[in-house]
Specification:
Layout: H1 2-10, H2 31-50, H3 55-77
Helix pairs in contact: 2-3
């Protein structure tokens, strides 16, 4: 993901950007859109992993996925 983020700053034009971690999602036009797609992806992954689990276990998985996204955002803005 770090390389994907760096490509926003090093690649001329969005047509040349590639996002292997967002397979199946539309190509983001800017960094904010990229983060929104990653949030949607984290939510989807969390929900898929939580199918059939008790509420407490599901909450832990969702918290973990959202924490990963929060760390990504912190990394970007520092």
């Amino acid at each position: 993901m770090k390389g994907e983020i760096e490509s926003f700053y090093t690649t001329e034009g969005t047509s040349q950007l590639t996002f292997p971690s967002l397979l199946g999602y539309r190509k983001p036009r800017n960094l904010d859109e990229y983060l929104k797609l990653k949030a949607r992806q984290a939510d989807y992954i969390g929900n898929e992993m939580c199918k059939g689990l008790a509420d407490r276990a599901a909450q832990g998985i969702l918290s973990h996925e959202l924490a990963r996204l929060a760390r990504l955002e912190i990394m970007l803005w520092t």
